[in-house]
Amino acid sequence: MAYKIYPPEVLYNTITLPGSKSISNRVLILNALSISNYEIKNLSVSEDTSVIKEAFASNTNQFDVRGAGTAMRFLTAFLSCVEGEWILKGSERMHERPIHPLVDTLITIGAQVEYLGNKGYPPLKIKGRKLNGGEVYITANVSSQFVSALMMIAPVTKFGLTLHLEHEVISRPYIHLTQKMMEDYGVKIKWEGKTIKINSQPYTAIPYEVEADWSAASYWYSMVALMPKAEIKLAGLKKESLQGDANIINLFADLGVFTNFVEDGIVLTKKNIVRGKFFHNFINEPDLAQTFAVACCLLNIPFFFSGLQTLKIKETDRIVALINELNKLGYVLRETENGILEWDGERCLTDETIVIDTYDDHRMAMAFAPASIVFKNMYINHPEVVAKSYPSFWDDLQQSGFKLNETENF
Q: Long-range contacts made by residues 256-264, C-beta under 8 angstroms, separation at least 24?
């Protein structure tokens, strides 16, 4: 299936965003570790969150997380300390995403984990048991989720866990998010420099309400920036947010979007664009990079983005995907070195019929959807991939005046 998207002339609407995927995935693990019977309110309806829910509700010992990287990492750590024998697998792409930094560390603290395919990659066979804990070193420049997964199980180990973070710490706000949520559940954490110390201690069960997803908000920021006339209210977002992607408020201000906080969310309106080359290190907000690459090109704002090294091991190699698909729109991007993506304003001919491939990556589909405002002959292949994080995305677009023409994939 593919969609051809017809944008409205003006954009005015109120959107209720889904619950944060990042918070939802963590709260499910913390709820289980605290043996909580409390209801989780506003839980994300994303595919990523659903596979964790399914794992907890399942009567089998075999779990398929499909393309959910967070679920793979969090469940690997969680199942390692749950009595039993477990098989954890995923999609073909998931079996190409490295997990050995997490597995190596788990084995160090007493876990029994075997690779059922290529060494260092899922699928995994896990024999769960009470883990010893102790003092470990974990590389922090591959995925912050490795660190978060270990942090969450630390309190239920025999001796607690001291994590020494090696190399540059990427996506630091996500580690802070894990820390804050664990503290909400009664756990004391000491984080100094690159060392996180968590003693063996009980979790305290609490009721929890998930805040709305700032990552999902980014696509609406992009649409407001590109539309001639626009005002969008996004319900459920909080000013004092736990999510690192809330920094989008500051970043999109330079691209002509003003954020006004109201009682139950935010209202986005247009303002003047700050012209000049856009520089930003996305080390703390890698999930925003695709949205900004597309928006900057369409607004004719050259950019220099760094801190993108984790994009190469996501659902796809997102840097290559961005270069390929923006080239179809007539923009020549370059990966000048690892983790750096640059556009100096160079243009090329656009495809006569523009067909955006999504690479089984939800963020590719949603980041490129706003491009329909500028390019009227654009199609998006496999639009269903948005289910991974924002299943109602296309419905919300239609309610905002966009028209979708469904056709076969190109």
A: 256/225, 256/299, 257/221, 257/224, 257/225, 262/233, 264/235, 264/236
Residue pair 222/291 in contact (Cβ under 8 Å)? The answer is yes
Distance from C-alpha of 403 to C-alpha of 8, rounded to nearest angstrom = 8
Torsion angle, CA of 108/148/115/109, rounded to 10 degrees? 10
Are 269 and 10 a contacting pair, CB within 8 Å? no
Handedness of CA 25, 29, 32, 37 (dihedral sign): negative
pTM for the whole thing? 0.90
Least Cα distance to 25 among 183, 189, 177 occurs for: 177
What pLDDT, on the 0 to 100 scale, is given for residue 311? Answer: 81
| Chain segment 61-99, per-residue pLDDT in tens | 999 999 899 999 999 999 999 999 999 999 998 999 999
- Tokens 């407001």, located at residue: 224
Work out the percent of the chain whose per-residue pLDDT is above 90: 86
DSSP letters spanning 162-205: EEEEES---SHHHHHHHHHHHHHTT---EEETTEEEE-S-----
Contacts of 328 (CB under 8 A, 6+ apart): 350, 351, 354, 355, 356
Catalytically active residues, by annotation: 287
All structural domains of the chain, each given as residue ranges with its CATH number in brackets, are 2-18+212-407 (3.65.10.10), 21-209 (3.65.10.10)
- Give one DSSP letter per residue of 77-105, joined into a string: HHHHTSSEEEEEE--TTGGGS--HHHHHH
Q: Which of 74, 163, 63, 164 is nearest to 116 (CA)?
A: 63
In 3D space, the residue among 79, 84, 113, 85 whose CA is nearest the CA of residue 99 turns out to be 113
Find out whether 287 and 215 touch, Cβ atoms under 8 Å: yes
Q: What share of the chain is helix, strand, coil (3-state, %, to 5)?
A: 40, 25, 40
Distance of CA 116 to the CA centre of its chain: 27
Burial class (CB in 10 A: 0-12, 13-18, 19+), 21: buried
Q: In what order do the strands lie in the sheet with 161-166?
A: 134-139, 161-166, 195-198, 190-192
Distance, in Å, from the CA atom of 206 to the CA atom of 309, rounded to the nearest integer, reads: 36
Contacts for 285 with CB less than 8 Å, ≥ 6 apart: 171, 173, 244, 245, 247, 248, 251
